[in-house]
Amino acid sequence: MTAVSDGYYFEDLSIGMSASITKTVTADDIEMFATAVGDFNPVHMDEEWARKTRFEGRIAHGMLTAGIVSSVLGTRLPGPGNVYIRQVLEFRAPVRPGSTVEATALITKLEPERNRVHLETTCTCDGILVLAGEAILFVQSHQRRL
């Protein structure tokens, strides 16, 4: 299997391949994400307010956690040069400031006629599943470029 500087080519992928990235989510990450997208929900921004919720404290935006999945897909598997088509997400548990998230993508299906790859996507914190989903990407080919 060859990884090219632009990412994997479709022909180099196989079912069962996987890749992961680990990132500790900081309070600064949450604040920068809120600023970037304009979501200042107090459950993300105000510890005192968030303590009164069912989460009993501040939590990261779900889409910030999903962004770590995007990092795996865009930098590791299938990597640079490929196009994200679809993502289905299910948020299972909160991610708190200071939590270390491990995002993993696992190839589950290949569509050679369309150069599409299907991946199971997950995020865990301390062994707890916090995000589960599925992604589809259009992957560059040796025969034709995107």
Structural class assignment? alpha+beta
Oligomer: single chain
Low-confidence blocks of residues: none
Distance between the termini: 20 Å
Mean pLDDT: 93
Which percent range describes the beta-strand content? 35-45%
Report the biggest beta sheet as strand number plus sense, adding barrel if it closes. 5 strands, antiparallel
What can you see in these coordinates?
It is a single chain. With 146 residues, the chain is α+β, with helices and mostly antiparallel strands. It has helices at residues 27-37, 42-45, 47-51, 62-75; strands spanning 3-4, 7-8, 18-24, 83-91, 100-111, 116-125, 128-138. The strands form two sheets. A five-stranded antiparallel beta sheet has the order 3-5-6-7-4, with helices on one face. Strands 1-2 form a two-stranded antiparallel sheet. The relative contact order is 0.23. The mean pLDDT is 93.
Structure, briefly:
Helix content is 23%, strand content 36%. The chain is of the alpha+beta class and 146 residues long.
What brief labels describe this structure?
23% helix; single chain; alpha+beta; five-stranded antiparallel β-sheet; 4 helices; 146 residues
Question: What is the element layout, followed by pairings?
Answer:
Blueprint: E1 3-4, E2 7-8, E3 18-24, H1 27-37, H2 42-45, H3 47-51, H4 62-75, E4 83-91, E5 100-111, E6 116-125, E7 128-138
